Amino acid sequence: MLPRRPIAALAATTLALTLASCSSEEEGTGIVVTTNILGDVTSRIVGDEAPVTVLMPPDTDPHSFAISAREAATLENADLVVHNGLGLEEGVARNVAAAEEAGVPALEVGAGVDPLPYTSDESEGEPDPHFWTDPARVGLAVDLIAERVIEEVDGVDADTVRANAEAYAAEVDELDAWMGEEFAALPAESRRLVTNHHVFGYLADRYGFEVIGAVIPSGTTLASPSTSDLKDLSVAVAEAGVSAVFADSSQPDRLATVMAEETGVEIEVIPLHSESLSREGGGAETYLEMMRANTEAITAGLRDD
Fold this sequence. Notes:
The strands form three sheets. Strands 2-1-3-4 form a four-stranded parallel beta sheet, sandwiched between helices. Strands 5-6 form a two-stranded parallel sheet. A two-stranded parallel ribbon has the order 7-8. The chain has helices at about 5-25, 35-45, 70-75, 95-100, 135-150, 160-185, 200-205, 225-240, 255-265, 285-300, and strands at about 30-35, 50-55, 80-85, 105-110, 190-195, 210-215, 245-250, 270. The chain is globular, with a radius of gyration of 23 Å. It is built from ten helices and eight strands. With about 300 residues, the protein is of the alpha/beta class.
């Protein structure tokens, strides 16, 4: 017969387990990042100093993705939330707001990198959230994220985080220089962009492109073009002599294809990884890889204009 445990000892054990459980629930869940692009950047900065949870899966539209109840709980227990902001993550904006209301520190990266306004008719004057198409602004984001991680996340080594950030920023600078050289090889008259929706304003501003228009005349994929929108864009494309339309790889290119057919001239619809990293083997698994792939696709698509 097994010996009976003293009541006092049993009570002490129960209390210890209860306290341990409470302590575990109160511990932060590390750094939670909304988009996979910022998730990659943040992971490079943080390294092994703290856990990084990325909410947005690969090959996903950041405007429409949503999170589970468990992911929402992780968000609300984070040591730091890193989000793009400026209206990008429309499906999780309320979750981020709830976390902030609960006292979770949050960094809205887009607001801190000198955002540009949209110039489209429907979104004119509103801040454009797609800053990552300009590597120079991603360099600013690296510094913002590093310093906020050091400030908010207990236990990280500040020197290590800053060293990681400096090394990664150097890679981003190299990317910027390479993209500039690749785009400079295109004649100025060939640097014209038509996209599925307004996503390359920062790239255009950085490298001297003209944005002819977008199939969806808005900064979000949740909007829909009217028949007159498609007709007006088709006329503009035909007049500009553009031979390629660029559509996000995570979005169906049906509307871009319809618009191309409306022009009466041959227009190629080229997929880009503009708002999401790809799954493994998809050619855009990291931010640096995504931007290089997009640069190659854009230059190849416009080279014969």
